[in-house]
Write a structure and sequence with these properties.
The protein is 34% helix and 31% strand. It has helices at residues 35-48, 65-83, 133-146, 160-179, and strands at 4-10, 14-21, 28-31, 51-58, 92-99, 102-109, 115-119, 126-127, 130-131, 149-156. The strands form 3 sheets. Strands 1-2-4-3 form a 4-stranded mixed β-sheet, covered by helices on one side. A 4-stranded mixed β-sheet has the order 5-6-10-7.
Length: 195
């Protein structure tokens, strides 16, 4: 069973093409025009073992907001499509991930109900060419379009680059765990019988 998604989303602000394979090995081809964001998405792909291709053309002459937010929207759409009816998946995933001095917790529930909790403070306005406030906006967009419950919490703060990178990698590991097929689960993992 293929668990892939191909999404094309065009607006007046961005044009985004994405291909996601949940059962990949981690290679990525990512071009958003925002170097630090590409680096974060590459880490997400590699550590989640997702095959990921993204081409995003956005109105960077305005700022990075629309490109990053819309990429989050498209990634959420791709996750939702690729995971399908959710039969046989573990549904929940979590990770506490260290990145040098920084420590980040991420927990995911692919329940179909969007909820987002973010607890972390950046002390610099930018990491490279990416506004640090856009980290939160990206994950918010992913959680709501995927229909997932997503919690991100910085347990030990530190270098801004390390905190952001720990968030992307922790999310990757938690999502990988949540989307894993488990032979012991014959239907959806819910007392309701649906997700």
């Amino acid at each position: 069973m293929s668990r892939e998604a191909k999404i094309i989303r065009n607006t007046k602000e961005t044009k985004i093409q994405m291909k996601l394979d949940l059962d990949g090995t981690g290679p990525s081809k990512i071009v958003t025009g925002i170097g630090f964001f590409d680096h974060m998405l590459d880490g997400f792909s590699r550590h989640g073992l997702f095959d990921l291709e993204i081409e995003a053309i956005g109105d960077l002459f305005v700022d990075s907001h629309h490109t990053i937010e819309d990429t989050g929207i498209v990634l959420g759409m791709a996750i939702k499509e690729a995971v399908g009816d959710k039969k046989g998946i573990r549904r929940y995933g979590s990770m506490i991930l260290p990145m040098d001095e920084a420590l980040v917790l991420c927990a995911v529930d692919l329940c179909g109900r969007p909820y987002f909790s973010f607890d972390g403070t950046f002390t610099a306005p930018k990491c490279g060419d990416m506004d640090t406030e856009m980290v939160r906006e990206f994950f918010y967009a992913v959680s709501y379009t995927a229909g997932m419950n997503l919690h991100l919490k910085v347990l030990t703060p530190g270098n801004n680059h390390h905190m952001a990178e720990a968030m992307f990698k922790a999310f990757a590991k938690a999502l990988d765990e949540a989307t894993v097929m488990d032979s012991r689960i014959s239907d959806v993992l819910s007392t309701k019988g649906s997700l």
